[in-house]
Amino acid sequence: MLLLSSTPLVTNPVPIFFIVLVIILLAPVLLNRLKIPHIIGMIVAGVIVGPYGLNVLARDSSFEIFGQVGILYLMFLAGLEIDMFHLKKNFRTGMGFGLYTFLVPMVIGTITSYYMLGLDWLTSVLMASVYASHTLVAYPIVSRFGLSKSPVVVITIAGTIVTVVGALMVLAGVVSIYQEGEFQYGMMLRLLGVTVAYIVGVIYAYPRLTRWFFKKYSDSVVQFIYVLALVLLAAWVSQIIGLESVLGAFLAGLVLNRYIPSVSPLMSRIEFVGNAIFIPYFLIGVGMLINIGVVVRGWETVYVATVMSVVATACKWIAAWLTQRTYGMTAVERSLMFGLSNAQAAATLAAVMIGYNIGIFGEEVLNGTVVMILVTCTVSSIVTERAAAKMKTEEIEREGDTQATDPSHYATLIPVANPVTVDSLVDLAVMMRRSRSTAPLYALHVRNDNTPNSRAMGRIALEKARKAAAVVDAKLVPIERYDLNTVAGVINTIKERDITEIIIGMHRRSKIIDSFIGSTVEQMINSTNHMVILSRCYIPLNTITRIVVYVPPKAEYETGFARWVRAVGNLARQIRCRVIFCCSTTQRRYIQGVLHEGRYEIRGEYRKVDDPDDFVMFANRVLDDDLLVVVSARATSLSYSDTVAEMPAFVQRYFSRNNLLMIYPEQFGAESTAPSFVDPMASDLSASVSPLWLRLRSTWRRIMALKKRITHQLRHRRK
C-alpha cells in the first residue's frame, strides 16, 4: 500500500482543524499574488502536510468523511446551478460531448495501454475507462466567475454524467469478466433497470416532498439541513444500487434547483458551507493521496506516470476539439470544456483501487495514477482559470448594450410596517432585479407617533429587512421616518432618494366599505408616477409552480412597459418556472422583444387574450401554487379602461386565496425605448385633466362596473 506507517506529528482534533483552516485561509491569499488558481494551492498543501510530505497530518476518518461529502457537494452544486430549461436546450450538445469524451479515451487509451504499457486487452480496456472518467475539480472556478449557467458549462456537466456512467458500466463489465470468466448480460440489464427506477423515484418524490416541507417550515437553517439530508440520501441510495454516489448528488441538485433560487438565503448558506469547509477538505484530501516519492523509485514508474498523464490530457483535449468542430463552438469554449473535463480525482482513484485490490492493476499503475491526478488537476485548474477569465470578459462586452437597457441605477423602496412580511418583500425585491445589479435597496418605516411601541416595531421591521438583504449580499439602507401622514412620508422619501420603484405588501381588507388595495396605497399610487408593485403571497416564492401574467389592452404604450417585463423575467429566471403571458398578438411581439434583448432564457408561453372575457375563461386554470401577476394602470394613463377599473373587484372575487402581484407601471416618466417593432409611447395627460373630473369619472366607472356585474349574475342565475 501507499500509506506510510509512521505516526503523524499532529493527532489532536483541535490543532488538526486549525491547520486545515489556516490552509483554506492562506492558500487563496498567497497564490492569487502568483496568478495561480487556489485549487492547486489546496492540493499542494495536502501533499506537503500529508503522510507523503512532512507527515504533519494523517489522512484519517475526518478527511475521508469531509472529503467524500466535498465531492458530493461539488456535483450537487453543479446540478443546483442548472435548470431544466438550459439542460433541455443544450441536451443534444451535452450528449455529443459526453460520447466524445467517453469514446475517444476508450479507443486511444486501450491502444496505448496495450502497446505502450504492455497490458493485456482486458486490463487495457479498464485503464481506458480510467482515462474516460473525470471529476469537476475546477468547477468552483467557473462558479466564482459567475459562469455556472453558461451553455458550455452545462454541456460539460452533461458530458460528465455520460462519461461517468459509461466508465462505471465498463468497470462493472471488466470486473465481471475477470472474476466470472464471461460477460454477464443479466447483471448489466438489472443495473440498468434499477438505475431507471432510481431516477424516476427521485424525480417523482423529491419535488413533492420539498414543496410540502418548504411551505411548512420557513427557517433557512432547517431548510439547509433538509436539503443536505436529501443529497446524502440520494448519494447513499446510488451507492447501494451499484452506481457512483456523485451521480445521486448531481441528480438531487438537478431536481432541487427549482426550489432554491440563486439569490435566496438558502442558496447563500449552501454555497458558503460548501466553499468554506467541504470542498476545500476534499481538495486537501486529494493532495494527501499523492506520493511524489514514487517518481524516484525507478524509471518504470516515471514512464507509466508520464504515459498516463499525457494520454489522459490528450484524450480530453481531442474530445473538446471534436465537440468544437461538430457544434461550431469558439476556441474559448473549447478551452473551458477541456479544462473542466481534464481533472482526474475521486472517480479515477476509486476505479484504480478496485482494479488494484482484485489484482488487475499492479503497483506501478497505482503509483502512476497518483502522479496523473496531480498533473491533470494542475492543468485543469490553470486552463479553466484562464478560459473562464477570458469568457467572462467577452460576456461583459456582449452585455454592454443589455446593461444600458436595464441600468443599474434603479433604486427600490420597500415600505415596511409588519415585521412578519418583511422577509418575503425583501426576497421579492431581490429576485425582481438583475442578479449582478448593484442598485441599492431602501427599507422605509413611517411612524405616526413617537411612542416606545411604535419606535420598537419600526426598528424590528428595519432590522429584519437589513438581515434578509445581508444574507444574499444585497445592499439595503434602512430608513426610519416620522410623519403625520404615511403617504407623505413615502412620497418625500421617493423624492429624496431618487427612488424608481416601490414594492409594498398588499392591504388586508378590514372594513366593508374599504377598497381592494386600501385608501392609503391608492393615495400613494396616485401620488407618484414610478412603478408600484403590490404583493400578496401565501406561500414562499421558491415553491411557486407557474407565473400567470395578465396584460391589459394598450399596456405596451406605457413608459414602464419594458421595465415590468424585465422584472417579471428576472423573477421567473430566479424561481425557474414557466411564465404564461395572457396578452394580445401585438403585445406578444413587444414582450418577446424585451425578453430577447435582455437575454432572458425563460420558459415563456403565451395565451391569446383580446377580450377580458377570454381571461375570465382562463382564470379557472390558475392554481393555488401559481403566482398571478395583474398589470394595472392609473386613471390618467393610456391603458386605463373599464376593464382595468373592474380588475381589482374581479381579482378580489375570484382570486382571494391566490398568490398575487399587482403592478402599476411607470407612467409619464422619462421616456425609454422599448426593444420591439414599434416604440412604446406615452403622453402626459395630467396637465389637461382636473382632480375633480378624475374623481367623478372614477366614481361613474365603478357604478357602471357594479351594474355590469349584477346584470351578469342575474343572467347566470336565469340560465
What does the secondary structure layout of this molecule look like, with pairings?
Layout: H1 13-33, H2 38-49, H3 61-80, H4 84-89, H5 91-115, H6 121-132, H7 139-144, H8 151-180, H9 185-216, H10 220-240, H11 245-256, H12 265-289, H13 299-327, H14 331-342, H15 346-357, H16 363-398, H17 400-405, E1 412-415, H18 422-431, E2 441-447, H19 452-471, E3 476-482, H20 486-497, E4 501-505, H21 519-527, E5 531-536, E6 546-550, H22 561-575, E7 578-583, H23 585-597, E8 604-608, H24 612-619, E9 627-631, H25 642-654, E10 659-664, H26 691-718
Parallel strand pairs: 1-2, 1-4, 2-3, 4-5, 6-7, 6-9, 7-8, 9-10
Antiparallel strand pairs: 5-10
Care to give the gist of this entry?
By secondary structure, the protein is of the alpha/beta class. The chain is built from 26 helices and 10 strands.
Structure description:
This protein is of the alpha/beta class and 719 residues long. The chain has three domains: 13-390, Na+/H+ antiporter like fold; 410-536, Rossmann fold (3-Layer(aba) Sandwich); 538-664 and 675-688, Rossmann fold, CATH 3.40.50. 62% of the residues lie in helices and 8% in strands. Strands 3-2-1-4-5-10-9-6-7-8 form a ten-stranded mixed beta sheet, with helices on both faces. Helix 6 runs antiparallel to helix 15 (346-357). It is elongated, with a radius of gyration of 30 Å.
